[in-house]
Every structure is written in C-alpha cells, then in structure tokens.
Design goal:
- By secondary structure, the protein is of the alpha/beta class.
- It has helices at about 5-20, 35-45, 60, 65-85, 120-135, 155-160, 180-195, 215-225, 270-275, 280-285, and strands spanning about 50, 90-95, 140-145, 145, 170, 175, 180, 205, 215, 235.
- The chain has a four-stranded parallel β-sheet, sandwiched between helices. A two-stranded parallel ribbon has the order 4-7.
- Strand 2, helix 5 and strand 3 (about 140-145) form a beta-alpha-beta unit.
- Helix 4 (about 65-85) runs parallel beside helix 5 (about 120-135).
- The longest helix has 22 residues, at about 65-85.
C-alpha cells in the first residue's frame, strides 16, 4: 500500500496485520507514485494495492493545482496503469470534495461530480483514471471528515484547545459524516478481500460513517463524550472562517453500494467517535501538560 506514513495509511497497515494479511507499506520517501518505473516495480506481484498517498493540503492546492494534480491525478493514473499491467486490483481512497456539495439528500455513488475547489478537481482526475484503466478491477472509496490517532485532525484540535480556551466558535452550516480512520481502514481490508473473492463489483463506494452532523455538532459530541461541557462550543457560520478553498456545504454520502459487496455500511458517527475517544492518543490530549 502507498501512503503508509499517513493518518489513514497507518491504520490500514494495522488493520491488515490484525487480519493476518501480509502487506508492504510504502511511504512517500519509499515510492514516488508519479514515477512509472518505480511504481511498476513496487506493484509487481501484488494482488491488491491500496492507495492512501495523496496531496491533502486543500487550501494549498488553490495556488498549486498543478502540483496537487500531479499526485492526486497523474500519480493515480500511473498506479492504475501499473495495476492493470500486473493484474492487481486497486483500492483508491478519494474524497467527497469531487461532489458539488449543493444537495439536500445523501449523494448516491452514481451522483454527478462537480468539484468546487482545486483539491476536488485534482482528486476527480484520479477517480477518472481508475475508472478508465481498471473498469473491472478498480475501486474508488470516497471518504470525508477523517480523524484518527496518527495525524492532525479536527477532533484532536478541538480537544487540544479545551485547556486553552473557555469557548470555541465552530461552523454549523457545513454538513457531513465524521469518519474514524480505524473504522475506515478495517472496511478497506474487508473490501479488498471481497474483491479478491469476486463478491465486490468494481466502481465507487462511499466510505463514511452513517448519519450526519455539522462541525459544531461533532465538536459538541467530542466534548460531551470527553466529560467536557458541550456548551463551551458555540455555533457560527462559514463566513466567519474564510478559507482560500471553498468547502462543500453538504458532504453527506449514501452507502447503498456496500450491499452489492455483501458488506454493511460503516457504523454511525457517534458510535465511531465514542470508540475513538477511548484510545490513548485522544485521552492524552485532555491531560494537564505535567501528566502527558
């Protein structure tokens, strides 16, 4: 798998180990996914390749779209071509940002795309490469609002600020599905096994938690579950936090396609969050500096 040093990649490697599956994890320093010769060599002999490598700086992509597309688009095309040559299946992690964010009901896997920022456009190029080069062996798993133990994320930021601020103003007009990387990682392993067994049709899957909330709702629930006063979280609008890249207002995804692979959708976001907050990395954020 690629992107082995990232927040999701580290959890995928752990999930593979838990399942007793032999895997090779490659970091950015180990493999440049835009290098065709290096990628062909890395993919040779693999049955399934999980691509977690990505340019993830959403705001930075606005002023560096070519560089973002080189990784999220061209690099994915190189991976897909190598997988096609080697006869390997590719599980490619994508994003809700390929969608326009103007819906009022969950986006189906077949919904029309329409990115509102450079990052989304770069990721869409990658999705299109997988569909073109691996029509029967390519799996695009769109996810969103990720948080986990092994990298910076919204939940960790909110908990880390608890000791320094009495109140936090958090956006309440963007809707999505907070998704724990550990839960998504386990599902990626299950999908890969289903693909090898011929049970999972190729195409787009939505790898997000069930249910929906806002960033405000997520922050309040994180505080409540951590024994903090949720009233310390106050609602505000996106206009109060202007960013270089536009954000989709609605990132709620539908999960119907999992049934075709014989798999259930991921659990609800509250259940995932409760499980995640029991992990040491999150608990440590609430300790006084002298104890952490």
């Amino acid at each position: 798998m690629t992107g082995a040093a990232g927040m999701l990649g580290r959890d995928v490697l752990a999930a593979l180990a838990d399942a007793g599956i032999e895997a090779v994890g490659l970091r950015r320093a180990d493999l440049d996914i835009t290098d065709p010769a290096a990628v062909r060599s890395a993919v040779e002999g693999a049955a399934v390749v999980v691509n977690c490598a990505a340019w993830t700086d959403v705001d930075g992509a606005e002023s560096a779209e070519t560089a973002a597309t080189a990784v999220n688009g061209t690099g994915v095309r190189v991976l897909a071509a190598a997988c096609a040559e080697a006869g390997a299946r590719l599980l490619h992690v994508s994003t809700d940002y390929v969608l326009p964010g103007d819906a009022t009901e969950p986006y189906a896997e077949s919904a029309a795309t329409g990115p509102v920022n450079a990052y989304g456009r770069s990721k869409l190029v990658g999705e299109q490469a997988v569909a073109e080069l691996l029509p029967y062996d390519g799996y695009v798993v769109r996810t969103a609002w990720l948080y986990g133990e092994h990298g910076p994320n919204f939940v960790a930021t909110m908990l880390g600020l608890a000791a320094r601020r009495d109140h936090l103003d958090v956006v309440d007009d963007q809707h999505g599905q907070p998704t724990w990387t550990r839960a998504l990682a386990a599902r990626l392993v299950e999908l890969g096994l289903a693909a090898l067994a011929g049970r999972a049709p190729a195409g787009v899957y939505h790898g997000t938690a069930s249910g929906r909330t806002t960033w405000f709702g997520l922050a309040r629930e994180a505080y409540r579950l951590s024994g903090l006063d949720p009233e310390r979280i106050r609602p505000t609008t996106s206009e109060a936090f202007v960013r270089p890249a536009a954000r989709p207002a609605f990132s709620v995804l539908g999960h119907d396609r999992w049934a075709r692979a014989g798999l259930e959708p991921l659990p609800g976001w509250q259940a995932q969050l409760a499980d995640a907050l029991g992990r040491p990395a999150f608990a440590d954020l609430l300790k006084p500096p002298s104890e952490s």
